[in-house]
Design goal:
121 residues
Length: 121
Amino acid sequence: MNTTEINQDSFKSNRKFYDDRNYPRGMSRSGDYTLAEVQLLEQYGVALSELSSGKRSPINEQEQHFVEVCEGKAEPEHKIEKTWLKYQNKVLTPKQFHTLFGKAKIASDSMASEAVDLDDE
């Protein structure tokens, strides 16, 4: 299989792919992807999504290899496969939440809330 070009018949779709749920401001503004990756996702994402979910059957060897990559049966060889796996990883992995306060701060706050009477001495 040619790993540098996408076959003209592969991954065809009538519309562009947008993920408004995970990227309400657009994938290009997220900082998660390069411009080339965003172009691949927008151009082929609908077909990639349908192929990976099983809604669409592969029509050629390149699409079949993509499905095998999604199922974990093959290693990604093409940029489009690597980009889709990166997208899946970003979307399916829960986002980490960071706070300014750690557990030590919470523990010291609970101690401070206990009444301390210094006048009894």
